[in-house]
Amino acid sequence: MHTILRSATREVIIGIDRPFVMIGEKINPTGRKKLAAALSEGNLDYARQLAESQVAWGADVLDINVGVPGLDEVAVVKKLVEMLVSVVDVPFCLDSANPQVLAAGLAAAPGKPLVNSVSGEEKKLDTVLPLVKDRGAAVIGLTMDDNGIPKTPEERLSVAEKIIERAAKMGIPVEDIIIDPLVLTVGSDSKAALVTLQTVDLLRKEFGVNINLGASNVSFGLPDRPTVNQAFLTLAIQLGATCSITDPAKLGATVKAADMLLGRDDNSMRYLKYFRAAEKLRTAEAEKTV
Amino acid sequence: MHTILRSATREVIIGIDRPFVMIGEKINPTGRKKLAAALSEGNLDYARQLAESQVAWGADVLDINVGVPGLDEVAVVKKLVEMLVSVVDVPFCLDSANPQVLAAGLAAAPGKPLVNSVSGEEKKLDTVLPLVKDRGAAVIGLTMDDNGIPKTPEERLSVAEKIIERAAKMGIPVEDIIIDPLVLTVGSDSKAALVTLQTVDLLRKEFGVNINLGASNVSFGLPDRPTVNQAFLTLAIQLGATCSITDPAKLGATVKAADMLLGRDDNSMRYLKYFRAAEKLRTAEAEKTV
After folding, report:
1. Separation in Å, CA of A20 to nearest CA in chain B
2. Are A251 and A258 in contact (CB under 8 A)?
3. Is residue A186 within 8 angstroms of chain B, CB to CB?
4. CATH number of the domain that A116 lies in?
5. Do B253 and A224 touch (CB under 8 A)?
6. For B91-118, how does the pLDDT look when each residue is reduced to its tens digit (9 = 90+)?
7. What is the pLDDT confidence band of residue B200, given thresholds at 50, 70 and 90?
8. A262 with B224: Cβ contact below 8 A
9. Residue B38 near residue B29 (C-beta atoms within 8 A)
10. Does the structure's ipTM exceed the value 0.90?
11. In this structure, what is the dihedral angle of CA atoms A286, A55, A30, A161, given to the nearest 10 degrees?
12. Element holding A114 (H helix, E strand)
């Protein structure tokens, strides 16, 4: 099953038989004071830098979230998307809890964008799916509903099924739905990662849908988070995850290594290409700081 | 299925429901000139340092190989094992292509040691299995035979079956056989890692035996080898590998992270303990070099 996203000029295909897709996470002011301040001042320059840098580091898609308290997000997302179109040629993933912001972003984005996100919550289903349908977009569906995040893989599968069925009724095909089985922090629940991995496995076997994962939440509160995040993403890729909203500079090498080890990279071409590009970026950054 | 190894004082249990076991690889002069020179001079001090350091970094078992051209290996392995018994309390893994060296090491080692290795080669089966049986040891069985290393997972499984059957005929129980499905370099064969991973999966499902892997051969010739090795070991652990002959300082954190993410580390206790110990070792080493 292929989820196809498009920018004005480029097509990104997400699928189990394709290279793992990285969705750059950094254009999101949550926890990024510098970005929040810049957006509040109407300065889009820092967001532009983040976009360029993430694409250079291998982001195939860019998540765009402008959630800053007090900001006119509808106006800002429009301006930001229009600006970004001129500097990067990747598809966008519009990310907001506010349907009006999603609508504004979807209207401004070219090609076929992705929406982050719907869930099994009735209000979300009712407000987000029509936007997705009208725009002919794809959407990330989180496995949580009005009762919260289910504890077991089977229950999370049921939420995914509900999202897929509701979307189907509206005419949104299953290949345009990417399920995110959600991961809680393993530091507070020893089985948290396992439940998510088991959900990935079930989703792959039962529905064959594309699967997205945030790869950093799992390590919250633990030391040496990169090692935990890298291991988690590797485990999830083997079970069938096909994309991740993540920092490509931190997890790109692991993603390319996993693709290569799983036999999806003939002659290690993409692994080697990524390594060379990363070396150049590291050298350039080192020179900048000298 | 549990493979139990013993030192004079300590028991190490290898099994899918247990923490992943690391067998320290460094007491092996192949590619280690300093160790080769020390052993040739009859100096065991460097080997002692390697033993202590690897155990400090989390090695559960120590591989012992004294293969230096021209050396009286039978005499040296005896002296070395007798010395090491007084400094570390982990079980030993006797590693040699020479059955007489294995015999000498097995005679000197306390408890229940491991033998590295037998294979499906007739000569190996005939010479190594009797040593294992007589000593009541466990043994690593490599999935290669007189025709070399088979290309397909199914053929490698057949070699494993042959080893297990021949051992059974001699009275060596299957739980004392750890199968090593072998990994070639992914840099020269894009499907090399995949074939090994598929063999791990088959071995786990068909035989339920313990499975060992060398985790560094896979990345030979590639840049950023640690990232590839870490990803490979993580993939293999998820499919059922239960031990690895490796450098615990390089792969220990990944192993503990994988155990934790797979739900085998209540309250992240072992992960946190390992991190704290590693931090102390890094601090001590940094102070030494100042």
Report:
1. 14
2. no
3. yes
4. 3.20.20.20
5. yes
6. 999 999 999 999 999 999 999 999 999 9
7. very high
8. no
9. no
10. yes
11. -140
12. strand A114-119
